[in-house]
Amino acid sequence: MLVILFAIIYLILLVMAIACFAALGYVALMLIISKPMFATLALGIGLFASGGFIVYYMIKFLFSSSERQELNMIELNLDEEPELKNVILDLTQSIGTKFPKKVLLSYNVNASVFYTSSFWSMFFPVRKNLNIGLGLVNGVTVSEFKGILAHEFGHFSQRSMAVGSYVHNVNKVIHNLLYDNESYNNTIASWSNASIYFKLVNWLAFVFNSGVQFVLRQMYSQVNKGNLALSREMEFHADAVGATYVGTKPMIDSLLRMNLVSDSLDQVVDYYNGQIRNGIKPDNIFSRQTIAMNLMAQRLKLPLENNFPYVSAEKAAAGVKSYIRVKDLWASHPSDEDRILSYKSGNYMEIPADCRPAGILFSNLKKTQEEATAFLYRDVTFENEPVFDSGADFEASFTKEINDFPECFNGYYDNHNPLHLDLDATDASDPENVTYFGTSQVALLSELATLQNDLNFLEYMTQNPAAYRNFEYESGRYSSDKASLVAEILAKKMAETVKQIQQNDKDIYAFFRRLASEKDRKDEFRKAYDSFYKMDAEFDRLAKKYTEMHEEFEFAYQNNQPELIHAKLNRFYHIEDSFCDELSHLMKSAAYKAAITDEATNAFNAYISDRPRYFTNDKYNHEAINQKAIVLNLYMAVLQRAYVQNKKKLLGLKAELMSS
Question: At 384, is the secondary structure helix, strand, or coil?
Answer without folding.
Answer: coil
